[in-house]
Amino acid sequence: MEVKKSFSLSNYNPSWPTDFRQERKIILSFLPKIIDVHIVHIGSTAVEGAVSRPIIDIAIGVMNPLDLITVRDSLSANGYLFSSKGSSINHFVMGKRVDGIIKFIIHIVKYNGIVYRQMANFVKKLKNNYSLIKEYNDLKIRLHNEKASLKEYSHQKRYFEKVHFTKYS
């Protein structure tokens, strides 16, 4: 029998951009200076007015794909947890716990690659469309109220994103 993982939702928290900037500063403090990275706040916590799980998503875009492993290893050496489940050969996913709770999810990808552009453009397009924010919020709230599993919640979100953001430039 599969254990049903639950999830919590929060209204937009104005401290999330500050939390992102602080975490970005921490990450930059230990990454080798020779590695060219672009670190951006992604996901619903980057969109004012969006309901989201209270976990800040961060994309680290690496200019040279050969540096993906170095960045991953640097994060690991500084307490970030590698997720083999969400990772692939060109997209590493890591988490950071604060007070025992995952507060940050880090996506290490090729800068300006397809995945990086999808994540960055999702935020950009959502920020500029209040009716779409409402529709996305309604979906998440409905799933939460129906006590959907975290797996089903994630699946429904990905489907919504695919339907509404099929063109990534």
Query: What name goes with the CATH superfamily?
Result: Beta Polymerase, domain 2
What's the CATH first level? Alpha Beta
How many strand elements? 5
What is the CATH architecture term? Answer: 2-Layer Sandwich
Helix run count? 5
Topology pattern, helix = H, strand = E: HEEHEEEHHH
Which residues sit in consecutive blocks of at least 5 with pLDDT less than 50? none
Termini separation: 42 Å
**What overall form do the CA principal axes indicate?**
globular
Mean pLDDT: 92
CATH topology: the name is: Beta Polymerase, domain 2
Biggest sheet strand line-up: 1-2-5-4-3
Q: Helix/strand-derived class?
A: alpha+beta
Strand content: 15-25%
The number of distinct structural domains comes to 1
Tell me what you see in this structure.
This protein is of the alpha+beta class. It has a single domain (16-164), classed as Beta Polymerase, domain 2, CATH 3.30.460.10. 41% of the residues lie in helices and 23% in strands. It has helices spanning 16-30, 68-77, 114-127, 130-145, 150-164, and strands at 37-42, 56-62, 81-88, 91-98, 101-110. The protein has a five-stranded mixed sheet with strand order 1-2-5-4-3, with helices on both faces. Helix 4 (130-145) packs antiparallel against helix 5 (150-164). The termini are far apart. The mean pLDDT is 92.
